[in-house]
User: Fold this.
Amino acid sequence: MSPVLRLTGISKRFGPLVANDGISLELNRGEVLALLGENGAGKSTLVSILFGHYVPDTGTIEAFGQPLPPGDPAAALAAGIGMVHQHFTLADNLSVLDNVMLGTEPLWRMSSRRAEARARLIATGARFGLGVNPDARIGRLSVGERQRVEILKALYREARVLILDEPTSVLTPREAESLFATLRQLVREGLSLIFISHKLDEVLRVSDRVAVLRAGKLVATLPAATADRASLAELMVGREVPRPTPKPHAPGGLVCEISDLTVHGEITAVSLTLRAGEITAVAGVSGNGQQALAEVLCGLRAPDAGRVAVAGRVLAADPRAWIAAGVARIPEDRQAAGVIGDLPLWENAIAEHYRTRFARRGLVRRRAARRFARQVIERFDVRAGGGVDTPARSLSGGNMQKLVLGRVLIGDASGTPPLLIVASQPTWGLDIGAVAFIHQQLLDACAHGAAVLLVSDDLDEIFVLADRIAVMHAGRLTAARPAAEWSLSAIGLAMASASPLEAARAG
Amino acid sequence: MRVEARGEVSRPMLVIAPFAAVAFTLVVASLFVAWAGAPLGRTYALIFDGGFGSRFAWSETLTRATPLMFTGLSAAVAFRARFYNIGAEGQLYAGALAAVAIGGLHGGTGFAAHPLLLFPAMLVAAMLAGALLLIVPALLRTRLGVDEVVTTLLLNFIVLLFVSMMLDGPMKDPAAMGWPQSVALQEELQLPKLIERTRVHTGLLWAVGLSMLLWLVLKYSTFGFAVRAVGANARGAAFAGVPVTRTVIVVALVSGALAGLAGAIEVAGRTTYVTLDMSPGYGYAGIVIAMLAGLNPLGIVAAAIFVAGVLVGADSMSRGVAVPTYIAEVIVAISLLSMLVATAFARYRLRWN
Assistant:
């Protein structure tokens, strides 16, 4: 039987960067092929080429035996290739049916054939076991339901090959289970799937074959049955991955007290205490109020009620007050908030202190600033082609995060480490090597007496790092309990809608 | 053919961009020249001659470039912080009017203060007038998110009508035989000529000096850092503790002050009084100049001289061949558009397949 998709010798360069280097790959009918690789390994580029967003420099694609014209998304759709993006492409204010129909109807027709479309949508949903109310507004659906709509959208357009880009990154463990069940159903119906991920466990669970990409090259294609975690990790990274060394646990004094913190429409009566030398994690599916909590703790936003005291003082909603108080802040979105992409690395390194430590009579102390930036580069292993003059934009995700981390963890002029670290999704989208490095840095800072608040939706990360865990759902936070007292199922329950009491019982 | 993002912004392309844009502009403009039925080579030769071909041509070009440098700086500073001040034309007139209000021969004599006191007072008044015009747009933008392009653009018409009212009313020169023009500036307040028997005045030195000062401020000062940070990524700047709102408001005031200064210097150096046609769109041309200069204050000097040369050269060319002077505006407009396209090529590339 001929494969449904055949990629032959696909190469793509962006300037000096070889994103894809002679990749040849086949996808068979009814197969789940996992595309595994670190960030920047070339997964997204390959899929973008497949879907017609990029034109490959060399190489050809065949779908169902027919050559696919390069750079033509419409042709890819017509050939039955569907894509479920990591960030959903749905209109929140429209209904499920509207979203599914969007773009499927010719522009020059007076009437819309809604009744027909509705019947087809319901039939498609029933066939694949994806029940969704066609009239529900997207904005009211949960993340898991939205993903189902994305999949339905592709199926409605008669996709025979479905590409899922990091589909579990936005789901609770329970929603992920239901997604895996859906994928099995799709395969039974004869679809072929490409499943993109950098999470080893789920790749091993759902896929038939695993293709591992590293630095733009296809380094291995192997049946999932013969693979294991360790071997995949090594293939993906190309070396052994160091595990962070845990620290002796000896919490010190109270550093930060959050009591009855409320931001209308976001979080309600959140209370938490943070102690020196302890990592406290806030788990939960993103979008449940973590962002508002982090914004208050970064000095970006004033709470509507309740108080936050750092070392006994209530601070104004001004980042400068928090920086001066010794709070090291790591934002959730490093590209949009962490760095200023057009400015060079050295200016980014001093951005928090440009009017204090690194200023004299209204001028920036350039020499001191560049020296400080060089320290950050060295101590935190930031790899930048042009040294301190490299524009921050051109750093890779991992190096950008090391810069963001380094500038706040390196300590003040006298070398005093930060009092409190507020880290939101500090390793989101980073490769395994960078993740290990950043985890180690957080553990080290903690061992030197910093209190750490870790906001993350990655449970693996939370169990590796946290001493205590609290779970956030719908703007409310459970009590923080020692990590050892939480089971995976108890956290899963607390992350879904179950009450904290129920979750505690399950634990 | 398709457009693709470059992996990294190409530095050489950013340098080549203005030259490529000007070259492309001349090619397109020659279509219009040919359409007017004039000989191409001779037309361009006449424009070049009229703008840069002689001592007199240079003096006229530099005179014209002086207000353009101020309005160019006004736009460049504001655009650096992503505050799109399109109101330099109105601010220029407000500055000119304020200068005459302080330094004019009201009732035949004017204020009797010493020129060393009156001259700075006149400049400060002009800068305040320009800056004041931007307070409301800046506050509307930072508090309510009202688009400053709309508010500043529309303010131009309000200011021009106000100036017209003043020129026909309280500030009208009784000796002007009914023409709507303001009283003249006291002679002691007028700027000395830079070169004998030309119109080039010391305002040019002020403009060049300010360009250098602003370049230094943007590059080396903490305020310049804040401006560049806010312009490049306001959210990232806010996260790091840069006071975004305050920076935008200060930038707006500086931008308005520079445009107001353009008006005062123009009155003190060239016209000596305010009329409704003292600026043939210097405020708008400043935007073109700022873009041509890549928002770099030092580049403004060169860009202003180029645009002024084209305007002056076209004036003198139209006396030689039958091409209307509007060709100058066509050239300036096309050069702005092609500059925008040229800088886009630093970020994107075309691929043929």
In short: The first strand of chain A starts at residue 5 and ends at 14. Chain A touches chain B through 38 residues (CB under 8 Å). Chain A has three domains: 5-237, 254-338+417-506, 340-394. The longest helix of chain A spans residues 173-188.
